[in-house]
Structure formats: structure tokens, C-alpha cells
Protein: Carnitine O-palmitoyltransferase 1, muscle isoform
Amino acid sequence: MAEAHQAVGFQFTVRPDGVDLKLSQEVIKNIYLSGVTAWKKKAIQFKNGVLTGVYPASPSSWLIVVIAMMSSLYTRIDPSLGMIDAIKENLPYKRCISLQTRAVLSAILFATGLWLFFIYLLRYTLKALLSYHGWIFESHGKMSASTKLWLYLESVRPLLDSEQYNQMEMLASDFKETEAAQLQRYLILKSWWATNYVSDWWEEYIYLRSRSPIMVNSNFYIMDFLYVTPTHRQAARAGNVVHAMLQYRRKLERAEHAPLRALGTVPMCSTQMERMFNTTRIPGIETDIVQHLTDRKHLIVYHKGRFFKVWLYTGGRHLLPSELENQFQRILNDTSEPQPGEQRLAALTAGDRVPWARARIKYFSHGLNKVSLDAIESAAFFLTLDEEPQGYDPAKPDSLDVYAKSLLHGKCYDRWFDKSFTLISYPNGKMGINIEHSWADAPIIGHMWEYVLATDCFHLGYSEEGHCKGDVNRGLPSPTRLQWQISAECQDVIEMSYLSARRLADDVDFHGYLFSEFGKGLIKKCRTSPDAFIQLALQLAQFRDQGVFCLTYESSMTRMFRDGRTETVRSCTSEAVAFVRAMEDPGATKAQRLALFLRAAEKHQNMYRLAMTGSGIDRHLFCLYIVSKYLGVESPFLKKVLSEPWKLSTSQTPQQQLNLVDINKFPKYVGAGGGFGPVADDGYGVSYIIVGENLITFHISSKFSSPDTDSGRFGQHIRKAMIDIQALFKPENEKRAVENGKYAHLENAKKHM
Structure:
């Protein structure tokens, strides 16, 4: 054990003539360095706290104001309008202080008060300026509840026949005249009290109170580089990536990451980043909780059914990549067998939440099991050293599909799905991550992953043999096995969770598709938003695949608001439906189709802007529904709205730090994006990433158990829809517009964020 290894640094022997003490200089040195590191960290945190506390001013600006006030004492000019003299006369113990000292203290106190006044004035001024979102579109203002009801009715109009629409209109009208005002007043009250009236309820009721498995249903994944594998040595790649993650965590703790900005101008809320590391979802009978700890110094590694604890620090510093590689190689070389029940233990986190919560209370609340479970739940994050190689291989058409399923659910027992994220390392050097969704959304973990991949390849690097650079310190204590005492009864519970998770995983139909016919470069030359282009292609593909339109979900960020998370863009608009019908109508001309496309694209962009700026409808209706449940108010309208199935759920994976990798110089260093499981049993989940100028990667999921869906088929429909829409921009006499770039330029639509 690591504790035993450290204990040899202090030994004593009792002799007749006294006690003989032996101290290890190496251990004493490590203790000293650990203390120095801890105090440095506290000093940095104190410094950052001061800088944050006086933002947008700086400590030096206080000195400038004080010097200015002090100068006024000698120029006989009183900018305080008598306030300095008033302070001077009311100072405590003034009889014990000389007149000159009182004057100096009064000037300093007045200067400090003036400085604080200007800080708060600047803060509220900035808040007012940044709260203005009209710059996103030409006209914008606060929406009333009535307007949002109208927007909702508009969004469902293309999905309902006349009778169904009239019924929904009556429900909406009754809701407006009866319950709406009362529910809205409570929601306004919450908005005054809470920093964000949506996010806490969204986390609790959408994520934490769900009792179904989080594997597939909630967790999502992000892939490695698409074409490049920096080294084929598993331990080396894991060493570099883990070290890069520790660097990212240190910068996060020190508040050294540059703030993300919408369109490079408006800063976005970064609160979600605080729970990226040292975080675990803890199961409960009725609801889970998110446990976030600070300053965790170990990592849990899973390999071939065994759990290992690896310390991430030595001598007050992070382990170097070469040291981490050596530790991971020791685990790979370990030939010990799993303990009874250990191999599939993590299946508890993959199955239903209630059996896991009960098992945790009954079997893991005391003894060795509690100690080992605490080690997992308090770890910085979780690492799986997988046994089967994965990654994209052009020679294997289904390689991206298999890779995606491995990241999403693996074997159902080799990822700890409750950890904020599980890092997955494959024998061929490929990596990936599986992310628990309740604590944050995809752009948050994506920001970290972009930093890690760039640091791994362009800053840390590898030796010619593929090992991590640097000397190997073989004196580090070896990783230690976690110990378990898992009874036969507990093993039965584990097996039941595994079988439940296995059925869910086997039902996932995944298809990864690289669309390389054209990309963002050509779409932008068509003077339209790439996101709107893709969303309309998805509507066309959905109609060709199913023969009907469906309620469509696109995720939009709301992080321009404090603690903001997401809002829904309802992509299936009346304008999109009109465009799709024109594309399927042999009698429609190209000009008619193009005009309808432009109208639908502009509508989509406007809907996206509304969602981003807090004028979406779904989160508002969701919160009204929660208030109604608290008050015991039955609302047929809200019940109907919240029960509507999203048969097409979509999301774009954003690229946030384009400065980290020059894609023009390194075209092969592009990410493959990530994906998620299907939201509806008879629907599709589609995630896509726009990579560079000429590639769009689609991750498509559905269920084998649905006779109406087929992810591979839907991928072909997407390809055909993309090409058909692009053909609308080709001149009649041009047969190869994609290759030579000669296409019409249309009226500009504002760039998607």
C-alpha cells in the first residue's frame, strides 16, 4: 500500500537507553515540498479572490485614487465636498491621533469608499450593457407569456391537423385565462431571488430525479482525433492526456483560463466548469445528488476487472507524463485476478438508479467496501485502460459505429458512469471520454478536451519510440488495488443491473458518417448559416425516412445568462415544412425551392437567436409546470406540452478554441466530435460537428427494437438531403459546382454562433 510505503520514512526503536529515531530525508523533503505547494496554491487563490472581488478595477487603481485624494490635502482643494473633514471629526480615538494623521486616515477612507462606489457603478453598468441582446438581431425585446404561448402554437402548427390544432389552441387559451397568471407570479418571484430561475430545477427534475439508467439515456461521449494517433503505446498516451488534464485543472483552480465569449465579444458564464473534476453523481432512492469535492489527489484506474488507486502528486507537484506512463504500465503488466464480484461492479452505475441506491446503502456503507467506494467517488476522475483497440479506420466502414458504442456504453461494467467523466484509453493509443450529463453540458467538457488534445500533441509530445518525454522515476509507490468484500447477494444485484444495462446497450443502433462532399466553406459561400443548412437537411431527411414531420429538438446555449445552460430550438417550423414539401414536389421549380429554403433558414436563425437570448419557450413552460406541481394545480395544457415526444433530437458540437490547432497547417488534427443515445424509442438522436471548411461528421443513434428507424438508412438520407440542397445554389449551366466553387451568392443571413 502507498501508505505503508510512506510509513518507512519514519521509524523508531525502543531501547533500554532510550528511543532511537530514524527519519528519511526523502520523505521529509516530500512533506516540505507538499507544504510549499499547498501554501502557493492558497496564495494564488487569495490573489485571484482579490482580483475577482475588485473587478473591473484593480488593486493598483485603489492606490491611484488614494494618491489623488492625498494630493488634494496639499493643494487645498477638497473634491470630497467636506466629507473628508466630516470623517476626520468622527474618527474613533481622535484624541489619541494627531491632526495630520487624522487627515491622512480620513483621505484614505474617503478614497476607498469612492473607489468601491465606482467599482459597483461599473459592475452594474457592464451588467446592463451585457444584458442587452438586441445586437444579435435587428429588433428584440422582452416577451410576455402570451407571446410565448403564441410561439408554442406556431411551433406545433405544422405537426397537427386542423382538429388537433384547434384543440391545442383551446387548451392554450384556457391556460392563459386561468392558471398562467398565478404560476407566472411565482416564477417572477423566483427570478428575483435566484440567480437563474431555470437551471436548478432543470438539473434536479430532468437529470437527478430520473430513475432510469443514465448510461445511453443521459451520458454522452466525445471522440479522439479522427485521423491521427500521436502514439500507439497505451500507457504513454494515457500518461500525456492525464498530465494535460491536471494542467487544465490547475489553470481552472487558479482562474487562469480565458473567458469564453459569444461572437468574441460577450463573456459567457463558466459556472459549470467548477464541477468538472472531483465530482460524482451519488444515487438516491427518490433523487440523486451531485457531490463535488476539492483538491483530490488521486485517480482510479480500471483494467481487466480490477480497480487501482494511483496518486497524482509527488513532492508537492503533479506526476510527470513519464511517471504516469510508468504507473499505467505497471497496471497493464499486473496479472492478478479480480476479486469476487469486482469485475462487473461498475454495472451498478449503468443500470436503474433505485437498485444501485439500495445496494449502496446495504453493501457499501461500511467496512472495506465503503473505503474503496469512497476512493472511487472522491477521485479526480476515472480512467479505463480498455482491452480492445478502437478508432476510425477508412478500410472498415463500421469502425466509427463500433468506436461510438464503445465510448457510449462499453461492456456496461468497465466505465464508472456516475463520475463527472470517464477517460477511456485503448491499446492502439486512441482515447475518448464518457460524460455524466447532470453537472454540465457538452461545450464545457469539450473546452477541456480541446485543450487536452492540443497540449498532448503540440506541447508534451513523445519520444521516437512513442514513450512520454522525460526521465522515468521508478521509485514511486506502485498503484494499489482497491479491496472488496462483495457477498453473493450483492453479486446477484450487480448481475441484475448488468443484464438490464446490457439489454439497453445492445438495442442502440449507431452510425457514424463523415460527410466530405463539401463543408462550412461552401455553405458560407452560399450566404447562409451552416447550422440552418444542416438543420433543414435533417428535416428533409426525416421526412424522406419517415414520411411525416415530427417535433424536433435542437440544443442552444443560454450561457450569456448567469448559471445558464440550454434552451430548445424547435427546428420543425412551418417554413421548414413548406421547403421540404417543395423539395418533394416534382412541379416546384428550383427558384421556388430556393426562395423557400432562404425563408426557412432565416426563420431558423431567428428561432436560435430567441433561444440564446432567453426568449425561448420550452424552459419557461417547464418551470411553469414545476410551479404547478408544487401548488397542486392541474394544467391540461402544460401536461400536454411536457409529454410531447422529441422524435428527432439534434445538437451541434461546437469548436471553441480554434487558436489551439492550426487546421490549415495540420489538416489531419481534427476532432471527430461526439454523440448521445436516442431520446425517443422510435426516434433519432443526431449530433454533428462542423470540422474545418470541408468536413461535417454526423453521429446518428436509434434503437434496433424500433421497426421504423435505421441509423444507417437515416445517414444516407442526410447525405442525399445535403447534396440536394446544395444543388439549389448551382447555376443551371454548371454541373460541378461542388468541385470548382462556382455558385450563386445569396442575401446574407447572420452567422450562427
